[in-house]
Amino acid sequence: MKILVTGGAGFIGSHVVDGYIKAGHDVVVVDNLFTGKRENINPEAKFYEIDIRSKGLEKIFEREKPLIVNHHAAQISVPVSVENPIFDAEVNIIGLINILQACVKYGVKKIIFASSGGAIYGEAQEYPTSEKYPPLPLSPYAIAKLTSEYYLEFYRHQYRLNYTILRYANIYGPRQIPKGEAGVVAIFIENLLSGRPSVMYHFPDEPDGMARDYCYVEDVVKANILVLKNGSNEIFNIGFGKPTRTRELYKRLYDLVNNSNPSLRSPVPAPPRPGDIKRSCLNIDKAKRMLGWTPDVSLEEGLKKTVGWYSTHKV
């Protein structure tokens, strides 16, 4: 089938494109290359360099007539959303609405939406957190993701446009940009390979850093393939289901890089940034039960693969 992937030149989106093409699908990529990279684009995909907020997006839908839209294009930084909430809303909300309007007009059957389990639940009292837990977003980024989910439900109700929402944990792997809080694995690896110190943000009562649920990108691709035909009008947490503290993550990467510089043995502590939450870990039982999805790549294996990739690629 023909699938249009927004953000298909980005970190997660490009891996999803690869997975779809490998599965035999016809893929169209839409990306403005603001954070995505041309070299990430699968050569078998048809590429349009365009912003998802552009009026010209409709012409692409008219020409390509995709059956499925996979929406990964986004402003992904929590601190950026705090500093510039208008820009965040323009990309993450207005951009989505522009896509949804085109979906309705040109007969798209389903949209797969990349949401954020790592941010949308806020400081959840249920831990690990299930999809039933009421979201408590604590940043404009998380607010925009939750608002987008409500828009998807409206378009299903009003226009019968099916959707599947994937609430991601902290995703890592090859091609990740070493910027922002979402890219902490890439940031630590790049710094260790370059001999630079790394910063570990933490709350005063938690000196070992924040707890996060790290999931390898190949497992995320599996989920995006499964929901092409399953899980319509449902929300699924996609993560590994186990928390890891930032200090532990850094130590594992330090050992994998085999850095002999003792000054880099520990990260430099720093106070939390606006929008940071203390802990996040997802309950993934629903995805296991309804999709037959499970994460197969352990943190140790995933970090090893990621370090190997960055050791041979310049980002």
Automatic annotation (TrEMBL):
<protein>
    <submittedName>
        <fullName>UDP-glucose 4-epimerase</fullName>
    </submittedName>
</protein>
<dbReference type="InterPro" id="IPR001509">
    <property type="entry name" value="Epimerase_deHydtase"/>
</dbReference>
<dbReference type="InterPro" id="IPR036291">
    <property type="entry name" value="NAD(P)-bd_dom_sf"/>
</dbReference>
<comment type="similarity">
    <text>Belongs to the NAD(P)-dependent epimerase/dehydratase family.</text>
</comment>
<feature type="domain" description="NAD-dependent epimerase/dehydratase">
    <location>
        <begin position="3"/>
        <end position="239"/>
    </location>
</feature>
<dbReference type="Pfam" id="PF01370">
    <property type="entry name" value="Epimerase"/>
</dbReference>
